[in-house]
């Protein structure tokens, strides 16, 4: 629940920032000076792109939370039981072993969103957030496809 509050707070802060940026763009456009109008027009693009990114990230977060809830209800959400370093990150050897286990499970059932979800967690434990997010996006897409049938 704490993460949801932080995400909401950051989304509100971002919305305020984008609104102020949009107002500054309007002020520049209204000045009537050619360069200021061009800068203002360019600045109007940033709030639109920023809002789109925020909305997509919030949708991604909600989708991953739905999948985690499903796994929890099924009793198949993995325990956070890897040994930890003093920094709080999982020990590398344990994270690598878990990753290889999850990769083998996925290789046996590549169209299963649950396997992709677990692989995403393993990537994150191994410190590879980029690939972890990609695996989680695959899990979300597979779940959405299976829900439509």
Q: What share of residues is helical?
A: over 70%
Estimate the mean pLDDT confidence. 90
**First-to-last CA distance:** 31 Å
- Shape label: elongated
Strand residue percentage: under 5%
What structural class do the secondary elements suggest? mainly alpha
- Number of distinct beta strands: 0
Largest sheet, in brief, is:
none
**Secondary-structure element string:** HHHHH
- Rg to the nearest angstrom? 21 Å
As for the number of domains, it is 2
* Total of helices: 5
Question: Could you describe the 3D structure shown?
Answer:
The protein has 149 residues and is mainly alpha-helical. It has 5 helices and no strands. It folds into 2 domains: 73 residues; 57 residues, Serine Threonine Protein Phosphatase 5, Tetratricopeptide repeat (Alpha Horseshoe), CATH 1.25.40. It is elongated.
Key descriptive features of the protein:
149 residues, mainly alpha, Serine Threonine Protein Phosphatase 5, Tetratricopeptide repeat, elongated
Topology, element by element:
Layout: H1 2-30, H2 34-74, H3 92-108, H4 113-125, H5 129-148
Helix pairs in contact: 1-2, 2-5, 3-4, 4-5
Summed up:
The protein is built from five helices and no strands. It is mostly helical and 149 residues long.
């Amino acid at each position: 629940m704490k993460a949801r509050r932080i995400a909401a707070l950051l989304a509100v802060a971002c919305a305020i920032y984008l609104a102020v940026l949009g107002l500054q763009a309007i002020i520049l456009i209204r000045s009537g000076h050619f360069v200021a109008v061009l800068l203002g027009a360019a600045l109007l693009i940033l709030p639109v792109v920023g809002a789109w990114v925020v909305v997509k990230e919030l949708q991604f977060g909600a989708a991953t939370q739905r999948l985690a809830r499903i796994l929890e209800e099924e009793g198949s959400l993995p325990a956070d039981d890897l040994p930890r370093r003093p920094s709080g990150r999982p020990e590398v050897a344990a994270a690598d072993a878990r990753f290889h286990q999850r990769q083998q499970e996925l290789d046996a059932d590549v169209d299963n969103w649950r396997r992709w979800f677990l692989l995403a967690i393993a990537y994150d434990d191994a410190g590879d957030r980029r690939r972890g997010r990609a695996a989680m996006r695959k899990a979300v897409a597979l779940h959405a496809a299976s829900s439509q049938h």
